[in-house]
Specification:
By secondary structure, the chain is α+β, with helices and mostly antiparallel strands. Helices cover 41% and strands 16% of the residues. It has two domains: 183 residues, Kinesin (3-Layer(aba) Sandwich), CATH 3.40.850.10; 44 residues, no CATH class. 9% of the residues are buried.
Length: 237
């Protein structure tokens, strides 16, 4: 697992969905392999000590599991069903002054708080049914776009501290949860028949070809004719 900058793009094949360039998807065959990857991911999570928390999370964590199933319909046609489970652990909102965070830790807390603020605005906009939902203002909300007002089933678990010293964070968390209760999703089964799957692959290939041509023609970027031809042949095969 090497650290790298990940970029989020809109998925043209699925409205409201995104894909992450540079993200590696690992194939697993049993639950033990799933647990192993989850453990490796958890070990990479950034934590640090602050006045308020000895093991304060310095980032959000997203663990995604995709399950593909193939079955036949009543007409004997192959149907591909896809299910995806997102396990999301949000870093808590933090009062920078009371936590004693400075320099890098203060910047981390500011970034976390900003993404949570955007999440709050998205939740508010969905509840109020406004025309514009600010998903794109944060990478977190772009990733969770389909889980917030989309085609999925979503469960939000709010954790709070019993300490009166944390009353500010507790009220903020409860406000999030109360508002989120009023969001209405429209769960759908994600399935494609063979014809639909071929159509999706064809559209993806055409999009890649256009992106390749645009990249080749862009000023300052050069791909040799041989390399360009090999890439086109690979996509056409």
């Amino acid at each position: 697992f090497e650290a790298q900058k990940l970029r989020i793009y809109e998925d043209g094949a699925r409205k409201g969905s995104v894909f992450i360039h540079g993200l590696e998807e690992l194939i697993v065959h049993n639950k033990n392999e799933v647990y192993s990857i989850l453990e490796k991911g958890s070990m990479r999570r950034q934590t640090a000590a602050t006045i308020l928390n000895a093991h304060s999370s310095r980032s959000h964590t997203v663990f995604s599991i995709t399950v593909n199933m193939k079955e036949n319909n009543i007409h004997g046609e192959d149907i591909l069903k896809t299910g995806r489970l997102y396990l999301v652990d949000l870093a808590g909102s933090e009062n920078i002054g009371r936590s004693g965070a400075v320099d890098r830790r203060a910047r981390e807390a500011g970034t976390i708080n900003q993404s949570l603020l955007t999440l709050g605005r998205v939740i508010f906009a969905l509840v109020e049914k406004t025309k514009h939902i600010p998903y794109r203002e944060s990478k977190l909300t772009r990733l969770l776009q389909d889980s917030l007002g989309g085609r999925t089933k979503t469960v939000i678990i709010a954790t709070i501290s019993p300490s009166a010293y944390s009353i500010e964070e507790t009220l903020s968390t409860l406000d999030y949860a109360q508002r989120a209760k009023h969001i209405k999703n429209r769960p759908e089964v994600n399935q494609l028949n063979k014809k639909g799957l071929i159509k999706e692959y064809t559209e993806t290939i055409e999009k890649l070809k256009k992106d390749l041509i645009a990249t080749r023609d862009k000023n300052g970027i050069y791909i040799s004719d041989d390399s360009f031809g090999n890439m086109q042949n690979t996509m056409a095969s």
